[in-house]
């Protein structure tokens, strides 16, 4: 293994026999969503809701849940209110939200990075791309999990809902990432798992690739450049020019 490969691997602690050791560099920025793209935070939460609804004799509305994936503070779908109505024993929606959040956090804290994340970050850094995160989640949530996954220091900028006024599908988060990186939209690529995220990238004028997870699989990704089964399938050379 060459010295440049060993350095790239050692920086983020992965074990790969061969890692893209080429002389040329690529120009641009790779922008990652967080929830459902770097870390599967959505499947554990959905399963908890499904379990609680089943216990109450109801059925969790997965289709409605999918509409709020990638957003923050949405009022269009409020499962806690519906579950409280089904239970009908005085438990408030706020108490149910707290219960689901506690159970979700416990499960999510055991989740590793999704397939391809670590290798793609290493490859992108090695070929000279700038790296950013654009998330509709709060800063504490995103930074905390990136720190746990030993990925926090790998990104040049991290923009969350705390840095802008509105969440996806509005473009503000991605526009702020571009501003922080001093990168034109045409030289960037967004990686997203949800319809709302792809729409936000489109509104920001940035190309986007969809990498759906089990919760978002089947959403409308017609605005994406392509839909991939995992980040392992992304070919950076398709989207970035060489220096």
What does this structure look like?
The protein is built from 9 helices and 7 strands, in the order αββαααααβαβαβαββ. With 243 residues, the chain is α/β, with parallel strands linked by helices. The chain has 2 domains: 3-40 and 113-242, HAD superfamily/HAD-like (Rossmann fold); 42-108. The strands form 2 sheets. Strands 4-3-2-5-6 form a 5-stranded parallel beta sheet. It has a two-stranded antiparallel ribbon with strand order 1-7. Strand 5 (188-192), helix 9 and strand 6 form a beta-alpha-beta unit. Helix 1 (3-12) crosses helix 6 and helix 4 packs across helix 5.
Highest-level CATH class of the largest domain: Alpha Beta
CATH superfamily of the largest domain: HAD superfamily/HAD-like
| Helical percentage | 25-40%
CATH topology of the largest domain: Rossmann fold
Distance between the termini: 25 Å
**Biggest beta sheet attributes:** 5 strands, parallel
Quaternary status: single chain
- The share of residues in extended strands comes to 5-15%
With strands numbered from the N-terminus, the spatial order across the biggest sheet is 4-3-2-5-6
Write down the domain tally: 2
Helix tally equals: 9
C-alpha Rg, in Å? 19 Å
What's the average pLDDT? 89
Corresponding CATH architecture of the largest domain: 3-Layer(aba) Sandwich
Give the strand tally: 7
Shape: elongated
- Main structural class: alpha/beta
Order of helices and strands: HEEHHHHHEHEHEHEE
């Amino acid at each position: 293994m060459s010295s440049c490969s060993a350095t790239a691997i050692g920086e983020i602690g992965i074990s790969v026999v061969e890692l893209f050791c080429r002389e040329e560099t690529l120009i641009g920025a790779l922008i990652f969503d967080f929830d459902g793209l770097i870390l599967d935070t959505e499947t554990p939460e959905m399963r908890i809701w499904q379990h609680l609804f089943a216990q109450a004799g109801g059925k969790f509305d997965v289709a409605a849940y999918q509409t709020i994936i990638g957003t923050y503070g949405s009022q269009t779908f409020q499962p806690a209110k519906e579950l409280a109505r089904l239970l009908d024993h005085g438990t408030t929606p706020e108490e149910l939200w707290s219960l689901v959040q506690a159970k979700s956090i416990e499960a999510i804290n055991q989740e590793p990075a999704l397939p391809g994340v670590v290798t793609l970050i290493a490859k992108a850094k090695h070929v000279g791309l700038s790296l950013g995160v654009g998330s509709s989640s709060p800063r504490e949530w995103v930074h905390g999990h990136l720190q746990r996954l030993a990925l926090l220091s790998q990104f040049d900028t991290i923009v969350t809902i705390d840095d802008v006024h509105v969440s996806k599908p509005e473009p503000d988060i991605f526009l702020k990432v571009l501003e922080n990186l001093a990168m034109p939209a045409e030289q960037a690529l967004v990686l997203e798992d949800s319809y709302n995220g792809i729409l936000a990238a489109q509104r920001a004028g940035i190309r986007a690739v969809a990498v759906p997870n089990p919760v978002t699989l089947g959403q409308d990704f017609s605005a994406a450049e392509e839909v991939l089964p995992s980040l392992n399938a992304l070919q950076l050379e398709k989207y970035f020019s060489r220096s």
